[in-house]
Amino acid sequence: MELKTIHKKKLKEADEFQQxxxxxxxxxxxxxxxxxxxxxxxxxxLFVGAYDNNKxxxxxxxxxxxxxVLLGEMAIDENYRGIGLGSKxxxxxxxxAIRTGKNKITLGALDNAEKFYMKRGYKPILxxxxxxxxxxxxxxxxxxxxxxxETNYSDAKRLFFKAKYPSNTLKNKLAKLFHAYNAIYLxxxxxx
Length: 192
What we know:
Layout lengths: L1 E4 L5 H12 L10 H10 L4 E6 L2 E11 L2 E9 L8 H14 L5 E5 L5 H6 L3 E9 L15 E6 L3 E7 L5 H11 L3 E9 L2
Parallel strand pairs: 4-5
Antiparallel strand pairs: 1-2, 2-3, 3-4, 5-9, 6-8, 6-9, 7-8
């Protein structure tokens, strides 16, 4: 097995690989291939692949977001899961991320990957998105859970809550309480 930066000529193939695994229903993409390519051209070292005899078997795509490296997509061929490939790929990616000079890695994880990131030293943060028209007037006093950060965009307010561990019960409770249309655990890890 070989871990390396994805070659520019193989970026489309790597993108199709991750879409096949992460978006099998072919729903509308969050990040278009144009966005992926544009970011690749600025920081190709954050687009890494795992290869078995030149066959692509895993990828991580990373993006620079202010003082963070965002781990945007991680996908592994189902025939290569459960053998430590995810850990090796993440180790390689983290070394590449350190070279960018950024302070931390941030990512969003599917429920089935949360334990993996916790074992790797990532700390969970509950992230809620609420349409501006749905934000409760008293949102700051609605819960005993402290809002550690909030951002305002033209379409929505985003609230961040510190969490010791991912809990679907807490996620669902706060999503309902705050009228959130999206609730997910983000994970952060310091690079320093």
